[in-house]
Amino acid sequence: MDRYNAELYELKAEMCKSFADPKRLMVISELRKGEKTVTELVKNTGIPQAVLSRQLGILRSKGVVQPRRNGNNIYYSITDLRICQACDIVQEVLLNNLAKNRRVAEKLLSKNPSKKITVRGEING
Fold first, then answer.
1. For the chain, domain boundaries
2. Topology of 6-78 in CATH?
3. Residue 29 in contact with residue 43, Cβ under 8 Å?
């Protein structure tokens, strides 16, 4: 690994782990609209406050979100809008892969019309 900076790759991997939870991705999605209090995030995401606080702590420790206190309220915001752009890119890749897989499945099924794709994506027949 002489060609690669192992410490940098470790840091990148740690940051990527912060995006590996659907609840954290929901929080990032909410915060892309602007800073929000924990109460607003609970209301908008449906994530229980204790769980949300834990997720915000993880995002904060990785430098993804930052808190700002104003009186009794703590407002959270995204530290760098490129985080939202990275999430958008991942979503575009995911949607492209899903579309490609669907086209392949439809092509295969057109050769065997007795089979059908269910809502859950299973092939019956």
1. 6-78, 82-124
2. Arc Repressor Mutant, subunit A (1.10.10)
3. no
User: Is 64:83 a contact under the CB 8 Å cutoff?
Assistant: yes
Give φ, ψ of 53 to 5 degrees.
Answer: -60, -40
CB-based contact 66:79 (threshold 8 Å): yes
Which residue type, as a one-letter code, is found at position 52? L
pLDDT in tens, the chain (125 residues): 578 899 999 999 999 999 999 999 999 999 999 999 999 999 999 999 999 999 999 999 999 999 999 999 999 999 999 999 999 999 999 999 898 888 888 887 787 766 665 655 555 55
Chain position carrying tokens 């420790």: 61
| Predicted TM-score of the model (pTM) | 0.77
